[in-house]
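Example for tutorial group B:
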């Protein structure tokens, strides 16, 4: 069975954070598509097949919560794993993220190993 490379959509308004996450991911055999906000990310999802999304919350044009709600509203994307990576660390922020439809929530800065561990978790096939 060929596993193939997985593609991660990285959504963050900070060029530094996008580049940092992309560098970690590419060094670990992921393909990466980047977007500057939720609106840009929705457009990228129309043209790029992704296996998982890493998204920030606080962004211009469309924040992470609205982006997640819109992804979940699309039948073809409703099961796509979404991990929030944000500086927002309050319980209410996490609850709002999960209510929007996120699978996991990571507070940044996070160690590269933690991000990779979470990616493997959401990309692993479910055990039945």
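The residue assignment follows.
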């Amino acid at each position: 069975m060929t596993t193939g490379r997985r593609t991660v959509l990285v959504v963050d308004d900070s060029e530094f954070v996008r580049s940092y996450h992309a560098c970690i991911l590419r060094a670990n055999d992921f393909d990466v598509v980047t977007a500057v906000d939720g609106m840009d990310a929705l457009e990228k999802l129309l043209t790029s097949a992704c296996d998982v999304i890493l998204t920030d919350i606080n962004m211009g044009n469309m924040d992470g919560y609205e982006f997640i709600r819109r992804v979940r509203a699309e039948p073809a994307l409703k099961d796509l794993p979404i991990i929030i990576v944000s500086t927002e660390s309050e319980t209410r922020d996490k609850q709002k993220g999960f209510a929007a439809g996120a699978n996991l929530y990571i507070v940044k800065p996070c160690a590269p190993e933690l991000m990779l561990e979470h990616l493997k978790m959401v990309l692993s096939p479910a055990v039945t």
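The chain has five helices and five strands. Compare this with the pattern of hydrophobic and polar residues in the output above.
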